[in-house]
Specification:
alpha/beta, 11 helices, globular, methyltransferase, S-adenosylmethionine-dependent methyltransferase activity, S-adenosyl-L-methionine-dependent methyltransferase, Methyltransf_11
C-alpha cells in the first residue's frame, strides 16, 4: 500500500524515527476525548476504527479515559507505516485492540462495522479526500461519526510560538489546511451532515528540549540530513533565546508555558 502514503510521511515516519515521535508528541486532553464519546450515539459497546493510528498516542488516551474504557467494544487501528505499527504494537496492550496495515481509502474494515472513525493528527496526509469520504461512508453504521483531531501549537497565544511554527512549516511540502476541502466534496455531501468543530486552548510544560524534539519529530524535518538538523536546532535556540511573549513557569529549571490547542471536527453520517 506504499503508493497510498505521502512520500514525506513514508520516509519521515519510517523505521527508526518513531520512538522520538512517541516521546515528543503530547497526549490528548480529556475533554476532547470525552467530546468524541459524547458525539457517538451508540448506547452499547462502541466499535472504533482509528486511521493513521501512528504510535498509539491517541489510542492510549482513549483506553485510559473513564468514558471509553468500559464502553469500548473493539478498536481496529489502521496504520500504513510499518515502523509506527511496530511502536503501536509495543505500547498498546489491550485485547480489544488490533493494528493492521491500511490507508484512508482502504481500511480493510467490513461494511457498516464502525460506530466511529477517529483520525488523530493524520488527516492532512490523506492523498485522495474523495476516496476517503466514500470509504468512511462504507465502513460506518448509519448515524456513525468521523472525528478528526489535531493537537496544535497555539500560534495566536505567543509570538515565539508563531515564529516557531513559521520556521517548522517552512520545511513542509504540503499546504497547511488543505484537508478542509474534504467538507466541500460531492462524496462528503452525499453521505454526511455538515461538520461541527470545537477547540480547546490550554498550556503544557515546555523546555528547550521539548520544543526541539517536537520540531525534530515533524516528518519534513526528520528526513533532513544531520547538518541540516543541526541548523534547525540552532534556529530554534535563537527563537527561544529571544523568547517573545514567553511566560516562565520556573525560569531556574528552564520551564515555561507551551500554548497548545486541540481541534476536534465531528462529521455525522446521514441515516
Amino acid at each position: 500500500m506504499s503508493t497510498s502514503i505521502h512520500a514525506v510521511a513514508q520516509q519521515g515516519y519510517g523505521a527508526g524515527t518513531n520512538d522520538l515521535y512517541d516521546r515528543a508528541r503530547p497526549s490528548y486532553q480529556s475533554n476532547a476525548v470525552s467530546h468524541i464519546r459524547q458525539a457517538v450515539k451508540t448506547a452499547g459497546a462502541v466499535n472504533v476504527v482509528e486511521i493513521g493510528a501512528g504510535t498509539g498516542i491517541f489510542t492510549r488516551a482513549l483506553l485510559a479515559h473513564p468514558e471509553w474504557k468500559d464502553s469500548l467494544g473493539k478498536l481496529k487501528a489502521v496504520e500504513p507505516s510499518a515502523g509506527m505499527r511496530a511502536t503501536f504494537a509495543r505500547t498498546v496492550v489491550d485485547p480489544r485492540v488490533s493494528v493492521a496495515e491500511g490507508s484512508f481509502a482502504a481500511t480493510g474494515v467490513e461494511d457498516g462495522w464502525a460506530d466511529v472513525i477517529i483520525i488523530a493528527q493524520a488527516f492532512h496526509w490523506c492523498p485522495d479526500y474523495e476516496a476517503a469520504a466514500k470509504e468512511f461512508a462504507r465502513v460506518l453504521k448509519p448515524n456513525g461519526v468521523v472525528a478528526l483531531v489535531w493537537n496544535l501549537d497555539d500560534r495566536d497565544a505567543a509570538a515565539w510560538v508563531a515564529q516557531l511554527r513559521d520556521f517548522v512549516e517552512g520545511h513542509m511540502s504540503f499546504p497547511i489546511g488543505l484537508w478542509r476541502t474534504f467538507f466541500g466534496l460531492p462524496s462528503y455531501g452525499a453521505s454526511f451532515k455538515p461538520e461541527k468543530e470545537e477547540t480547546w486552548e490550554y498550556t503544557l510544560p515546555g523546555t528547550l528540549e521539548i520544543v526541539t524534539e517536537r520540531a525534530l519529530s515533524s516528518s519534513s524535518i526528520a528526513i533532513l540530513g544531520e547538518e541540516e538538523k543541526k541548523g534547525v536546532c540552532e534556529e530554534i535556540k535563537k527563537i527561544m533565546r529571544r523568547g517573545d511573549g514567553l511566560v516562565w513557569r520556573d525560569e531556574g529549571k528552564g520551564e515555561f508555558e507551551y500554548p497548545y490547542k486541540t481541534n476536534v471536527v465531528i462529521c455525522e453520517k446521514q441515516a
